[in-house]
């Protein structure tokens, strides 16, 4: 008998009570019944995202939310700087190009994080830039940047900062109001513990000024002006994924019952435990600036990532993720988001030890689990 265990960096595991909540009979979405869920979801999202900024809920993935932010905030004649150190950073540059925007696509070595000095230099080169877009936690490389210091740089220059927080919101420290992040973008299927289908944006007053001034350049469906107007009535301009909104309220209740500081601490401990465990059994951590939401490990010499992942799933029901594009076959990734705790993490590390041992990699069995246990004993 084998259990299924989801350790991918999205979609992530969903609590049973959230799934059951969405399975209950439902009403039409143009009713007070749905508006009540929208009101609750919006207020609780503000608490989880640590913001007083207006929060917009859209039906679509995190990519849809990011596209809405790019097209909404950046006028056709304005310039956007995208910081691209992985698959998702590149995606935001591609979207900007797709809409014909004036975009400066700054490539960064995969596995390294953009920093405030880079942003300051780029803004000096491009003083006419209206905004900078950065990925807080680059899922494809398991790399996190110092969003707070980057926000300080953009604010000092008077520029908007759009942040992809799709794999940081709800699991890494994030304080957009305090730091000066103008748009926080995230999605349902990561740390917020839902199936895919909802995107979220927390938008600052300064960003709303840019959006309102850019009325002629908006998309039709991903139109933040329309979304904001309806959100103020606890509604949506188009048909919402209303059962996901219902599940969202339950998922946010679970996070808030723990408190965000506690959640951040637990995620950080699971990530540190996984990194320490990997190093203890001879696996290199890929990123030079590791994210706590997902860990990327390099396979031992002579062993294929595909075979390691296949064995993890076949023997122990553990579904992990591989590398993308230039990292395909070079890393495998284990997520620390969603409905996962420290005992789940120990289980995954133990299973990884078993798989690598059976495949011929030599190390002291139990070294990874022991290293992880020490991290938990010290941190939690």
What are the salient characteristics of this protein?
alpha/beta; Aspartate Aminotransferase, domain 1; 380 residues; 2 domains
How does this structure look, described?
- The protein has 380 residues and is α/β, with parallel strands linked by helices.
- The chain has helices at 16-23, 32-48, 62-73, 87-98, 116-125, 147-156, 176-179, 205-212, 224-231, 242-258, 260-280, 305-316, 342-358, 367-379; strands spanning 5-6, 54-59, 79-84, 102-107, 129-135, 137-138, 143-144, 160-164, 183-187, 198-203, 294-297, 318-319, 321-322, 332-335.
- It has a seven-stranded mixed β-sheet, with helices on both faces. A three-stranded antiparallel β-sheet has the order 11-14-13, covered by helices on one side.
- The longest helix has 21 residues, at 260-280.
- The protein is globular, with a radius of gyration of 21 Å.
- The model has no long low-confidence stretch (mean pLDDT 97).
Secondary-structure map:
Blueprint lengths: L4 E2 L9 H8 L8 H17 L5 E6 L2 H12 L5 E6 L2 H12 L3 E6 L8 H10 L3 E7 L1 E2 L4 E2 L2 H10 L3 E5 L11 H4 L3 E5 L10 E6 L1 H8 L11 H8 L10 H17 L1 H21 L13 E4 L7 H12 L1 E2 L1 E2 L9 E4 L6 H17 L8 H13 L1
Parallel strand pairs: 1-12, 3-4, 3-5, 5-8, 8-9
Antiparallel strand pairs: 2-10, 6-7, 9-10, 11-14, 13-14
Per CATH, the class of the largest domain reads Alpha Beta
Please provide the count of β strands. Answer: 14
SS class: alpha/beta
End-to-end span in angstroms?
A: 32 Å
Task: Detail the poorly predicted runs.
Answer: none
Number of domains: 2
Into which percentage range does the β-strand content fall?
15-25%
- CATH superfamily membership of the largest domain, which one? Type I PLP-dependent aspartate aminotransferase-like (Major domain)
Question: Could you tell me the mean pLDDT?
Answer: 97
CATH topology of the largest domain: Aspartate Aminotransferase, domain 2
Our Rg estimate from Cα atoms comes to 21 Å
CATH architecture of the largest domain: 3-Layer(aba) Sandwich
The topology string of helices and strands comes to EHHEHEHEHEEEHEHEEHHHHEHEEEHH
- Helical stretch tally: 14
Shape, per Cα inertia axes: globular
Give the strand line-up of the largest sheet: 2-10-9-8-5-3-4
Helix share, percent: 40-55%
- Sheet having the most strands: 7 strands, mixed
């Amino acid at each position: 008998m084998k259990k299924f265990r989801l350790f991918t960096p999205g979609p992530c595991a969903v609590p049973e009570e959230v799934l059951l909540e969405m399975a209950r009979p439902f009403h039409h979405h143009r009713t007070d019944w749905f508006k009540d869920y929208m009101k609750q979801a919006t207020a609780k999202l503000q608490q989880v995202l640590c913001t007083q900024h207006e929060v917009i809920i859209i039906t679509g993935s995190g990519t849809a939310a990011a596209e809405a932010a790019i097209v909404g905030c950046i006028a056709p004649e304005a310039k956007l700087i995208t910081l691209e150190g992985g698959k998702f950073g590149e995606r935001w540059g591609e979207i900007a190009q797709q809409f014909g925007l004036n975009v400066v696509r700054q490539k960064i070595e995969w596995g390294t994080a953009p920093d405030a000095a880079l942003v300051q230099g780029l803004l000096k080169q491009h003083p006419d830039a209206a905004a900078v877009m950065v990925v807080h936690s680059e899922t494809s490389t398991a790399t996190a940047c110092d969003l707070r210091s980057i926000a300080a740089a953009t604010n000092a220059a008077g520029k908007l900062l759009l942040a992809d927080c799709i794999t940081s919101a709800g699991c890494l420290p994030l304080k957009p109001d305090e730091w000066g992040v103008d748009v926080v973008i995230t999605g349902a299927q990561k740390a917020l513990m839902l199936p895919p289908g909802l995107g979220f944006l927390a938008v600052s007053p300064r960003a709303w000024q840019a959006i309102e001034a850019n009325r002629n350049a908006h998309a039709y469906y991903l139109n933040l002006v329309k979304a904001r107007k309806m959100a103020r009535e606890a509604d949506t301009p188009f048909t919402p994924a209303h059962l996901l909104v219902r599940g969202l309220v339950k998922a946010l209740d679970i996070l808030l019952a723990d408190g965000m500081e506690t959640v951040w601490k637990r995620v950080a401990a699971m990530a540190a435990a996984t990194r320490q465990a990997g190093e203890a059994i001879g696996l290199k951590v890929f990123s030079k600036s590791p994210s706590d939401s997902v860990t990327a490990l390099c396979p031992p010499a002579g062993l294929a990532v595909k075979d390691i992942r296949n064995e993890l799933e076949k023997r122990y029901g553990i579904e992990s993720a591989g590398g993308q594009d230039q990292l395909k076959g070079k890393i495998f990734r284990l997520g620390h988001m969603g409905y996962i705790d420290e005992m789940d993490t120990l289980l995954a590390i133990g299973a990884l030890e078993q798989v690598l041992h059976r495949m011929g990699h030599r190390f002291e069995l139990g070294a990874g689990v022991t290293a992880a246990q020490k991290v938990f004993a010290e941190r939690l």
